[in-house]
Amino acid sequence: MSGLAAADRSSRTVPRGARWVGLMVAAAIVLTVGYAIGHSDSDPEWRQGSAHVGTDQASITVDDWTYGISTSVAWIDRSGSRHEDGWPECLDVPAGTTVEGVRFATVAVEVDGDGWREVVLVDCR
């Protein structure tokens, strides 16, 4: 009889709806933990400085902080349209060029005791 009971248990299936709910709960947990790990409690701070541009990267030093921008960042073009990613048109200059008066927003980020200021937006207006 114990063989029959084992066979009955192994043939049980989880209803399709319950599986879907389980996946949604798991996804919500992953998103919540990810947000908590990388979340910044600070509001963006606007800064302005001279950008030293390289190939798909730029650095801007303001008040003893050097901010790095590489490959892709949210940016606002000259007409005021927002772009969620890509390379800002005001930094699309030959490598080795310095661009004066670049306005950008940063947020303070802390993860596991390490902190930095992340560039979250470049304003090319």
Chain-averaged pLDDT: 83
CA distance, first residue to last residue: 79 Å
**How many E-type strands?**
7
Strand order of the largest sheet: 3-2-1-6-7-4-5
**Count, helices:** 2
Largest sheet data:
7 strands, mixed
Rounded to the nearest angstrom, the radius of gyration is: 24 Å
Helix percentage range: 25-40%
The structural domain count equals 2
Topology as H/E string?
HHEEEEEEE
* Low-confidence region ranges: none
Shape: elongated
What class do helices, strands and sheet pairing give? alpha+beta
- Report the β-strand fraction as a percent range: 35-45%
Task: Give a verbal description of the structure.
With 125 residues, this protein is of the alpha+beta class. It folds into 2 domains: 2-38; 45-123. It has helices spanning 2-10, 16-38, and strands at residues 45-54, 57-62, 65-70, 75-76, 82-83, 98-111, 114-123. It has a 7-stranded mixed sheet, with no helix packed on it. The radius of gyration is 24 Å and the shape is elongated. It starts with a helix and ends with a strand.
Keywords:
single chain; 7 strands; seven-stranded mixed β-sheet; 125 residues
Structure described in brief:
The protein has 125 residues and is an alpha+beta fold.
List the helices and strands and how they pair.
Layout: H1 2-10, H2 16-38, E1 45-54, E2 57-62, E3 65-70, E4 75-76, E5 82-83, E6 98-111, E7 114-123
Parallel strand pairs: 4-7
Antiparallel strand pairs: 1-2, 1-6, 2-3, 4-5, 6-7
